[in-house]
Structure formats: structure tokens, C-alpha cells
């Protein structure tokens, strides 16, 4: 195997680095979505 092929095999094309970044971002986004969905929407009281 050539050294260039070894480097590509070790690097894996970058998909694992993308998952390391995208995974937590997606999880945090889902948590924010669920938290906002659970908050009851009530009209704000106006002070007269």
C-alpha cells in the first residue's frame, strides 16, 4: 500500500470529524426544540 493510500485510510475522508462536530450540535438543537415545545404559550399580562 502506498503512503498516500495509508494517509487516506487513517484520515477516513473527514466523515468522522464531521460527526464529532455535527453530533453535539444536533443533540443541542433537539433539546432546545423539545424545551420550547413544552413551555406553555400564554398571553402576556399587560400592566394597566
Question: Would you write up a description of this structure?
Answer:
It is built from two helices and no strands. The protein has a domain at 14-38. With 48 residues, it is mainly alpha-helical. The radius of gyration is 23 Å and the shape is rod-shaped. Helix content is 69%, strand content 0%. The chain crosses the membrane at residues 18-35. Keywords: Membrane, Transmembrane, Transmembrane helix.
Overview in brief:
This protein has 48 residues and is mainly alpha-helical. Helix content is 69%, strand content 0%.
Instruction: Provide the gyration radius in Å.
Output: 23 Å
Mean pLDDT level: 81
Category by helix and strand content: mainly alpha
Distance N terminus to C terminus?
Answer: 79 Å
Keywords: Membrane, Transmembrane, Transmembrane helix
List the keywords.
transmembrane; transmembrane helix; membrane; single chain; 48 residues; mainly alpha
List the helices and strands and how they pair.
Elements: H1 3-11, H2 15-38
